[in-house]
Amino acid sequence: MSKKSVIFICTGNSARSQLAEALFRHMAGEQFDVFSAGTAPEPVDPRVFEVLNSRHMSTEHLRSKDLASLSERHFDYAITLCDKARQSCVAQVKAAQILAWDFADPKAKAGTKAFDVVLNELSERIKYFLLFSQKYRAGPEQLGDALSFYKALADDTRLKTLLLIQQQQELCVCELTAALTETQPKISRHLAQLRKAAILQDRRHGQWVFYRLADNLPDWALTVLQLTAENNSDLIADNLSKLNQMGDRPQRAALCS
């Protein structure tokens, strides 16, 4: 099977995208041709090499490149790592899928700690991406489901909604509104998107509509949510506290398995 191709894009191609290129090649170089580029390239920050070398990752191919120099190449995936690059790269890159990941620029802080943090965060995101990409290869009929699921995780409210529902088994709109401190219309809109993507299903009991993970959600999707919850328990800790403080929660214990 021929290799897929992926390019990481940020403004300067001097830190985040260089870390992503080296890490992705280290993790899946046998499956993907990996590139990086910038919309306004700058010299690679020396701390990139320092952090990668400390983890015994190759820096052989790392150099700053202008995205315009790759304008004739077609990629399977283009992944932007900052909002500015996302806005400007769409017209410059040819890719079957363009994904937006947003990471803080580590160059603004002294030392290498911020670079290590970004590298760790990239590692978790790439693990999920590789899990999805393996499903893509199973056949085109699964592509739409995987993409819908992946897009759901990209939104903060929807991701926390899924993690809360996974932890609680079932939740209604009012409970999610209290836990996430969002308006009812916004929560309902996100729930409708998750239900349309076949990630959630609902049931009505009296005046309440309860939402839970879809019974036919694939094992790989459940695994992604479980890994996310296990490795990011602090992500919804405050939301769970608010939920537990909520008064007059709907009674459903007898109705849930």
Strand proportion, as a percent range, falls in 15-25%
Distance between the termini: 44 Å
Largest sheet: 4 strands, parallel
Mean pLDDT across all amino acids? 84
Specify the structural class. alpha/beta
> Taking Cα atoms only, what radius of gyration do you get, to the nearest Å?
20 Å
List keywords for this structure.
Arc Repressor Mutant, subunit A; WH_DNA-bd_sf; 46% helix; DNA-binding transcription factor activity; 7 strands; Rossmann fold; four-stranded parallel beta sheet; DNA-binding; 257 residues; Ptyr_pPase; DNA binding
Describe this structure in words.
This protein is of the alpha/beta class and 257 residues long. The chain folds into two domains: 134 residues, Rossmann fold, CATH 3.40.50.2300; 110 residues, Arc Repressor Mutant, subunit A, CATH 1.10.10. The protein has a four-stranded parallel beta sheet with strand order 2-1-3-4, sandwiched between helices. A hairpin with a 2-residue loop joins β6 and β7. The longest helix is centred in the middle third of the chain and has 24 residues.
